[in-house]
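Chapter summary example: a protein plus zinc ion.
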Amino acid sequence: MTKAIFKFNSGHGALCCSGCNIIIKEAYRFSDEEMAAMKGEGELEAQYCEECMNKNKLTDKEWVELTKEWCKRYKGGKHQRAGQAYMNALFKVNKRLHDKISGTENDCFYDENKIINFIRFLNK
Ligand SMILES: [Zn+2]
């Protein structure tokens, strides 16, 4: 799971966007779940600002991670099909985009012919 990013400024915690790193919430507005995650007492998945939420593009860093994760799963690794390995790798690298793609014409889990859609979507 990609975890939420926290930042500390002169003792005050803040939750940052996992896409562009801007502060999206100050600690005084945190929910119990967010507070626990900041203290390391719980898990919180990656959070995004509104702008990043509407973007489909993977960052350069995420492409590198996706490629590494893909290699681990494809033949020689866990022997997954290419499309299956891509979707599983995306789940690990960017769950938000995985969930957005899942079940659409860009979901290549069961259909190798959709890998091209998958790649085009994530490059938009
Ligand atoms: Zn952002």
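Key point: Residues 60-122 form one domain.
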